[in-house]
Amino acid sequence: MSVTLVGKVALVTGAAKRIGRAVALRLAREGADLVVHYSSSEKEAESAVSEIRGLGRRAIAVRADLRSVAEIRAMFARVSEELGRLDVLVNSAANFLRADFASTTEEQWDSALDTNLKGVFFCCQAAAPELKRTRGTIVNFSDVGGILAWTGYIPHCAAKAGVVLLTKCLAKELGPEVRVNAIAPGTITMPGDAPEIEAEFARRVPLKRGGRAGDVEDAVMYLIGASFMTGHVLVLDGGRTLM
């Protein structure tokens, strides 16, 4: 399947670092202009923008606290003002907080749900009018914690499970103009990660390795181009959910 993003505009949340940055750069290499969202990593976001502009694409960095609906709406207003359109929204920003059941605090619960679920919903809500106009697409990030039950991470699992059902609801709400799908990655290793993290994951999966940024990039590109697919969650876990 060949996908061209030339002339398209994509917004990737959490695009200053790690997977979000890798996805943003891949979309730029495929022809898209980029909105690099960040919360606190301004230096890294500006570095990503410079790299994207070096590919000959337009790019801007926009700060927004995704726990704030007002800041989310301001971010999308700026996209319209500066880039004139939006074709792709990738909701990759997330946190991953350990929270033992007996000692989970209201602050931990709110942080997990606000960043991983509330922010996704309100980004989709703010993006929807323009995506309907351009017949665009949304790719949300859940993870295998939204499918498997992890003790010690209950707020995180609840939020990511919410992303799974939110994706299905939005596919019905926004179709036929906008397709909405999600990715549920397992452990994705990045340069500099502790090797024991991947080793532990590899022990649990049939493919005996962790994922790479390129695996996620390819999945995002597939969902952007899969014109007859909406409301689905692509599990990218090396077989982890089979075990």
> Helix count?
7
Helix fraction by DSSP (H/I, runs of at least 4)? 40-55%
Number of domains: 1
Q: What do the pLDDT scores average to?
A: 96
Q: What is the CATH superfamily classification?
A: NAD(P)-binding Rossmann-like Domain
Radius of gyration: 17 Å
CATH first level = Alpha Beta
Helix and strand composition category? alpha/beta
Kindly estimate the percentage of residues that lie in beta strands according to DSSP.
5-15%
Counting DSSP E segments of at least 2 residues, the number of strands comes to 7
Main β sheet profile = 7 strands, parallel
Q: How are the strands of the biggest sheet laid out side by side?
A: 3-2-1-4-5-6-7
The second-level CATH architecture is 3-Layer(aba) Sandwich
At the third CATH level, what is the topology name?
Rossmann fold
Provide the low-confidence segments as ranges. Answer: none
Summarize the structure.
With 243 residues, the chain is an alpha/beta fold. Helices cover 47% and strands 14% of the residues.
Account of the 3D structure:
The protein is of the alpha/beta class and 243 residues long. It has a single domain, classed as Rossmann fold. The protein is built from 7 helices and 7 strands, in the order βαβαβαβαβαβααβ. A 7-stranded parallel sheet has the order 3-2-1-4-5-6-7, sandwiched between helices. α4 packs parallel to α5. The relative contact order is 0.13.
Topology of this protein?
Blueprint: E1 9-12, H1 18-29, E2 33-38, H2 42-54, E3 59-63, H3 69-83, E4 88-91, H4 106-134, E5 137-141, H5 154-174, E6 179-185, H6 195-204, H7 213-225, E7 233-236
Parallel strand pairs: 1-2, 1-4, 2-3, 4-5, 5-6, 6-7
Helix pairs in contact: 1-2, 1-7, 3-4, 4-5
